Amino acid sequence: MNRWLFFYLSLVSLSVSAQDWNQFRGPGHSGVSTNEVPSTWSNQNNLAWRTKLPGKGSSSPVVAGNDLFLTAYSGYGIEPENPGSREDLRLHVISLSIDDGTINWNQIIKASDQEQQLTTRISDHGYSSPTACVDEDNVYAFFGPSGIIAHTRSGEYLWRSSVGTGTAGFGAAASPIVYQDLIIMNGSIESGAVYGLDKHTGEIRWKTDGIQRAWTTPTIVSLPSGQDELVLNQKGAILGLEPTTGKEKWRCEAIQDYVVPCVIADGDTIYCSGGRSNMTFAVRAGGKGDVTDTHLLWDVQRGANVTSPVLVNDYLYWSHDKAIALCLRASDGEEMFRERLPTRSRVYASIVSDGKKLFLTTRDAGVLVLAANPTYQELAINQVGNDDEKFNATPAIAGDRLILRSDQAVYCIKEPSRN
Predict the structure, then answer these.
(1) Backbone angles phi, psi at 292, to 5 degrees
(2) How many angstroms separate the Cα of 238 from the Cα of each of 76, 177, 287, 292?
């Protein structure tokens, strides 16, 4: 693992245990864990448990301690041919036991009247795409026009706060993150702004306008100087913000199109991808003002439109949304391999890694496992569930467990011999 990524994950581990995967793509949004998980599994092998969920969805699981949290929806849009009434749409925040998959609690919330009517694009993933985040006390879930909803980790309702009711295309996608006493939320689609909310009350502490066509989850970048920056990739420019105030510190001209993938940080180097032309930019963070001419390290016409990469041992890897396994050298963007995945469907789940292996989740053809090296090496293709299940969610790695989520159920992959 790259030395700066190791240093960053080491700092995060001071407050997040090895079991925790407390936000979208885990600590630092890296998608990388230092805990090894199985290479092979099936409905009969290395499957610790399967739990059918009380609703559909495509948000990722998050884990804190012995509890797993995710979101779902029910009551409307479950069957595209017979969607029902939008007034019956209900949103779920769910807690399960990481040990056996037992549902601890299931809080049901009435959706906002501003939620989109079902379309073919919405039915592809539904009304619960954003991934929740969790801290030592609470869990915070985002449902686009229906707002951010906070519960205690034992399921007690705390507050609900809106960051706008705008909608577009596939609907909501950005996930909330916790920073100190703030919940930071990219509400670009809902209101063209990014927000810092008091995590105890939901009150908006700061708001930064002008965030254009960004479905991406923001990333906190811990610089070698000890300072933190909030980095948000949007149409036209990558932004570096002061995370406690939202004030812009720097910007770098970049992708001239909408952005979905997360920013990946390696010390003060950040990797930003997105756009229909699939661009990736490497930029040095920590600047001031317009840093396009001074801090842009390289850019290439490779990357992904929807899915986020991982950085392992100085190489970037993607589970590309056009069903391609892709590897670039992080130092200069040189392509190492580009191989077709075993599916003809689009891929919406982002790649994750245990530092030795890469896990590339397809919607309908299982999870492809590759060796984490720049020479393409396929180790396994694993499937669980039924033929009618779709796997849109990015997996989580919690200790020695790999957690998969389909539109119907959640699965825990674990070797039986491990405690």
Answers:
(1) -55, -40
(2) 37, 18, 12, 10
Burial 330-355 (b: 16+ CB within 10 A, else e): beebeeebeeebeeeebbbbbbbbbb
Residue 367 CA to residue 363 CA, distance in Å, equals: 9
Span 54-61, mean pLDDT? 97
Look up the domain containing 186 and give its range: 3-412
Q: Would strands 248-253 and 289-290 be described as parallel, antiparallel, or unpaired? A: parallel
418 in a structural domain: no
- Which has more pLDDT, 7 or 122? 122
Neighbours of 377 (CB within 10 A): 13
Domain containing residue 89: CATH number: 2.130.10.10
Q: How far apart are the first and last CA of the chain?
A: 26
Residue 7 has pLDDT above 60, yes or no: no
Average pLDDT over residues 295-303: 97
DSSP-derived letter for residue 201 is T
> What are the backbone dihedrals phi and psi of residue 318, each rounded to the nearest 5 degrees, phi first?
-125, 150
